[in-house]
Write a structure and sequence with these properties.
single chain, mainly alpha, Non-ribosomal Peptide Synthetase Peptidyl Carrier Protein, Chain A, 0% strand
Length: 79
């Protein structure tokens, strides 16, 4: 399964949002379910799924701006 699809699967499972999530979906400020607890849950799911660790100083709003920015972040972590 492509990386983007895996991340969308994690987002859908975590957020259980009422809207469809795609690569172009804005996250912060547009999905009510996307709160600080969701961020922590998503980070943990990404760490578990892909086997990397996210340090506190790596997380800022730009990572969670869109699905695409989150995918780019994971790609950097996997490189």
């Amino acid at each position: 399964m492509p990386l983007q699809n895996q991340i969308i699967e994690i987002l859908n499972g975590t957020l259980q949002a009422k809207q469809e999530i795609s690569a172009e979906t804005a996250l912060l400020g547009t999905i009510p379910e996307f709160d600080s607890m969701a961020v922590i849950t998503i980070i943990t799911a990404l760490e578990d799924r892909f086997g990397f660790t996210v340090d506190d100083d790596e997380i800022d709003a730009s990572v969670f701006e869109t699905v695409g920015s989150l995918v780019a972040f994971v790609e950097r972590k996997l490189a």
